[in-house]
Amino acid sequence: MLSPPPSVLLMQRLWINVQLFSQGAVLSYRALFAWLRPATFIASMIFFPLGQIMFFTLLGIYATGAQNASFFLLGNAMQITASSGIFGVTMAIGGERWAGTLMYLFGSPANRLAIFTGRAAVHILNGFVEVLLGLAWGWLLGWVDFSRTDPLALGLTILIATFSTAALGLLLGCLGLITLNIMFINNLIYFLLLLFSGANVPVSSLPQWMQYISWALPLTRGIQAAREIVSGAHVSQVANLLAGELAIGMMYLAVGYLLFRFFEMEAKRRGTLEAF
Amino acid sequence: MSLKYARAVFAAFRMTYLSLVMDSFFIFATLLMPLIYALIAFGILRDKGAHYGIYVAIGSGLAGLWSTLLFGSGNAITSERWTGTLENIAALPTPLWVIVFGKTLASTLQSLLSMMVSYLLGWLVFGYPLTIAQLPEFFGVLFFGILSFVALGLMLAPAFLLNPQIQQFQNAMEYPVYILCGFLFPVALLPFWTTPLSYVLSPFWTARALQSAAGGTLTLDQLAFDGAMILALGVIYLGIAALLFRVVLRKARVDATLGLQ
User: Fold this and answer.
1) Chain B: closest CA distance from residue A235 (Å)
2) Domain locations in chain B as residue ranges
């Protein structure tokens, strides 16, 4: 029997990986929320973010006046993407261990990159929608004025910031494969982002050593870019910030993927794949 | 409460406290989260002046107290259901509420660390003069405030068990209470219609009295009124808790649906 030409084989393999990516994305997302009731989904995706946005924006208004409401609103609405990007993505990866499916995942010949990145795909979309909801709440409450905003530029900024945060989530998710304290790590990183990303406290007012950390994290540049775009800046004026945010995301993605492969090899070598 | 109940309370308290001390999530909720809130609040409120340091310390500490109570007490019974031990505890001669009381006491006392951590942060790191002007009144209010927190916890535990729909909003219940109780900013910033919601929460009265005592503006009239509100709401919470516990036990003994999710 004649084997198909290499180009056809390549296309077949590519198609399989695309399916693996898309089906893995949808199924892992559904699995994460399938056992929850709609009320839980609404509580996590609408009420929790709204509470956070309102709390910090009101605190900001109290401290600095109503004229600065948009600073806090934009910072916290953008930071909300971390609820999907950190909690959702981490559980989508680390949850394999809890669900007892890790050995099947690592036992399969499937492309690891497609599996790994697929876990974050729908959460990026989810995070994007969450940020839009946060901004909509802010607009309804009169805390932000979008009259000078380029919506496409803002959308691009949100998408890039959401991607880079989800990339950090993928990295943290890998830690969930080797530690039982993943909820501790998740929560800590989520709340540290509130502090370091400039969502509430301008990065320039932080001590120098904290600023180094801020600029190495996702969201910092994204939040700054969003604020500038809402103030009327053109996308070309924030291109450097967006490129930096994207680069940070790619870096976390690469490190996360390498860790994913490393933990897989180590777990197989030591036989500790599902050891608790 | 008879001696045997006191022993049961102590046993539940001790075991819960020991496990919470080692629980990384509770270490986060009682130590790290208030610390981060305090850092953010100190950062935002830095231009308000040094005298706001004590308000931030108290507010961040109370926020940590509420979060710990929400998850610690809120899950006090539900966690037994998850581990399959709820039926055994419900069948004990010791009333269920006695055990939950011990567990709630443990999580509430552990969460006092939140306030101490926030205080130390403001004092040592930011160098704020965190003096408490009316020390006896402050600790008096804190004592009764904690009792009221425990009563609130006793109400949350069976409520979460009986209605999983409420527990699904557990995460979403953190910030609204921070906002409604005025932990870090006055409730006067909120729309007028939210004021009654603040009034039915004992942490609101606790925060108000503690902040006034720290600032030296707590009059005898305010102390009497806030104190009465804290105690009255605590009693109401206990009454509701007693009712809910009866329903829980009815489900256990009559409907046999206690362990069902």
Assistant:
1) 29
2) 3-255
